[in-house]
Each structure stands twice: as structure tokens, then as C-alpha cells.
């Protein structure tokens, strides 16, 4: 593999989530290119790469911003990088996991980790039969989601049947989960973040259950009600009234999360779980290869995860470039 130069490529779609990372890399003088997917293209005949490392930051929720085609374009781009032998952070396997909630459940089943019971469907009219045997309420989740997009809750079989006849939104790949809705104990869910596949931090988010968008960068208050500075959000982003606090999960949860990330090929990302108010057991329900980190992290966590991420990316860039120098 030959590189034109030792540069980092950051392939991304959301216009705001990565501003803190770009600012940190600029401050350090790290050579990188911000590869916005809107204007991105590649040549399959290329035999070398401009970038020693490519960091995949594509969002599965791109379709709610009019960029659904990028979900599938990204698969082709990552396959191209694989052929070239480029070091990709959160590469093809991670993206496969990110864009399929059905596949995420397959991984959890393989690892024998608990998750809310679910069925996978590909037609709206299949939903009522798929819910047979599940505890209500249930939710219908598009297979390709992100930021809670497209999730709808149904409290009764009759409500689900009526909606199925009218037509449920199964998302851009026309595949969805019909899944038991878990009421989180004390209205709290936990998101555990990893970097280099290892525990980085965890946060506990307090929610009323009225929203499925639990994007950490959008959380606007700590548990005391103090407003958080949301540097990775647009200035006019709506306030969601979610509250958050730093949290230390039990060791067995951390171990489970690290196992999930290893199995899914995700080097930096987050896993969400909750304690079921009905039986007191933890259930994992979402695996994310995309982490935009908690708002106002130094105040909530006591450190800046973007600085930790920049440290790691800088080290990876140096390691890969040094390896190439030795080979040449």
C-alpha cells in the first residue's frame, strides 16, 4: 500500500457533530481532510490512497436529512478502501452493524446477551402477526434508524393492526423490528461509550419515554437542571428537556459492551441499555458506531472525550505511517 502522504481522512455527513473534533485536530496541527459525503466520489481504478487512515463518521440517520442514498454509497466506498488496504476506523463490519437493527439483535443473540424480544418484518401487514406473543406496548423500528428516527409505539394490538392497514413506515430498506417496549426503571437509560474498543465513559439519561431521540449531543441539562453547552449541535437545535449525569456501570456491563463492540467491528461507538422496570434486568437495545459525545463533556464527565479521540487518531496516524515507512 502506498500513500501520497501521511494524512487522516474524516468521512462524514452531519454538518455540526464533528466541529469539536475538527477544532481539536486544527489546534494540534494534525494533517487531515474533512471528506463531506455530499461531494465525495472515488475512482475504483485507484491503486493508492491519499490517506493513511480514514475515520468513518457516516450517520445512519442521514436519510432524515435528505441523504438516504449515502447509506448505500458508503458501503461501496468502504469496500473500495478495503481493497486498497487502507486503515479504516469503524470500517465495513462496523457500518454493517450500524445500519441494521436486525443484525444487532443477531449479534446480541450470538453473545447470549439480553435484549427486548422482537420480530423482523418486511411488509406493513406482517406487523400484527409478528407482535403475537410479545408484551404490549410494542414499538416498530425501521431497520436503518439513527437518532430515534421512525420509531413508533403502539399500546394495544388493535392500534398496531389499524396502523398496519394504513401502512407503517419500515424505513429506506423496507425492513423493521416489531419489538417489546421496555419501560426503563426510574425513567433512566444508560449509554456506554468506547474508544479503541475499550470503555471510555458512561452516562445515564433521564427520559419521560415521550421521545426516542436520545442523541447525547442533544441533551441540554444535567441532573441539577443546569443548561449544558451543546458545542456539537447547531445553534438553533431544539431543546429536548432530557437530563444527564455521568455514571459508572457494573463491571459485567462494561465487559458485555466491550464484547459487543469487538464482535461488531466498532472501535469507537456506544451501546445503550436500560433496566426493565418490570423484572429489574438489564436489556441492551441499541448498538452505535457513531459517537458525537455528550454535550458539555468536561463539566459532566470531568474530561474532554474529543481530546481523547484526537490523541488516539493522532497515534493511529503515526503508527500506520511508520509501518508504511518500514515496508518501503
Q: In terms of per-residue confidence, which ranges show pLDDT below 50 for 5 or more consecutive residues?
A: 217-226, 232-239
- Encode the helix/strand succession as letters: EHEEHEHHEHEEHEEEEEHEEHH
Give the fraction of residues assigned to helices: 25-40%
Number of E strands: 14
Strand order, sheet with most strands? 11-12-10-9-13-14
Largest sheet: 6 strands, mixed
The rounded distance between the terminal residues' Cα atoms is: 9 Å
Q: What global shape is seen?
A: globular
Please characterize this protein's 3D structure:
The chain has 328 residues and is α/β, with parallel strands linked by helices. The protein contains nine helices and 14 strands. It has helices at 19-28, 69-84, 92-98, 101-110, 127-130, 157-166, 251-264, 297-301, 305-327; strands at 8-12, 32-36, 53-57, 87-89, 118-121, 138-142, 152-154, 176-180, 184-195, 198-206, 221-222, 243-246, 268-276, 282-288. A six-stranded mixed sheet has the order 11-12-10-9-13-14. A four-stranded parallel sheet has the order 2-1-3-4, with helices on both faces. Helix 1 links the parallel strand 1 and strand 2 (32-36). The radius of gyration is 20 Å and the shape is globular. The termini are close together.
